[in-house]
Amino acid sequence: MKTYIKLLISLTIFAAFFQSCKKNEDVIPKKSSSVDSNKIAVVNGRLHFKDRAHLEGTYHKLTSLDNKELEIWKNNLAFSNLADNIATSTDPALISRYDLPMEILCVLNVKGEVQYGDTIVWYNNGTKHFIPKRDESLLKEVKQNPSISKIKVDVVK
Questions:
Q1: Residues pairing with 120 in the sheet
Q2: Mean pLDDT, rounded, for 56-76
Q3: Does residue 102 contact residue 10 with C-beta atoms inside 8 Å?
Q4: Can you give the pLDDT at residue 96?
Q5: Angle at 117 between CA 112 and CA 123, to 5 degrees
Q6: Digit-coded pLDDT (tens) for 105-119
Q7: Which stretch of DSSP H or E encloses residue 153?
Q8: DSSP E strands: which ranges in 31-146?
Q9: Pairing of β 119-124 and β 152-154
Q10: Would 33 disulfide with which of 64, 76, 112, 132, CB 3.0-4.6 Å?
Q11: Closest CA to 83 of 62, 112, 43, 120
C-alpha cells in the first residue's frame, strides 16, 4: 500500500511539473515585428505616410510578417488595397501590370497609388511615377499619357 501511495504521489508531482511547463499563449510576448498602422492615414482613397522613410520602414516591417499578421494589418486599416484586388481578380492584364511583391501591393490602393509627404506615387506597368505637391490634375494627365511623366523610375523586383 505504501508503494502505491508513493507511486501516486510521484505521478501527481510529475504531472503537475509537466502541466506547469505547458505553453501559455497569454504570457508569451508578441513578435516585435508588428507594424503600427495608427500613424498611417487614408487620404483620397490612398494610404498617406508622413515621409518616404515612414513608407520604407513600414514596407520593411511588412516583409517580416507572416500571412496571418499581414491580413490583420490590412484589415486594421479598413482600406481597399491592390493585394486583395489582385487576389480576387481573374483579369490576367491586371495581374501582370502589377507584378510586385505582396508587401508593396498591400500599401497600394486599387489604382496603384500611395502617398508620402506631398508626393503621390503611381505604380503602372513596371514604372513608378512620382507626382509632387499632391497635384491630382497632373496625376490624371500622367495616367492618360504616362510618357509625359517627368519623374519616374523602373521598378526593380
A1: 115, 131
A2: 92
A3: no
A4: 81
A5: 15
A6: 999 999 999 999 999
A7: strand 152-154
A8: 41-43, 46-49, 113-116, 119-124, 127-131
A9: unpaired
A10: 64
A11: 112
Q: Which three cell numbers stand for residue 139?
A: 496625376
Residue reference for cell 481578380: 89
Q: For residue 34, name the pLDDT band (cuts at 50, 70, 90).
A: low
As a whole number of angstroms, the distance between CA 124 and CA 68 comes to 28
Instruction: Scan for cell 526593380, then name that residue.
Output: 156
The answer to whether residues 100 and 155 touch, using CB atoms and an 8 Å cutoff, is yes
C-alpha grid cell for residue 121? 506615387
Q: Identify residue 5 by its one-letter amino acid code.
A: I
CB 49 within 8 A of CB 58: yes
The predicted-structure confidence for 9-25, as pLDDT tens digits, reads as follows 544 454 444 454 444 43
Q: Which grid coordinates are listed for 71?
A: 491580413
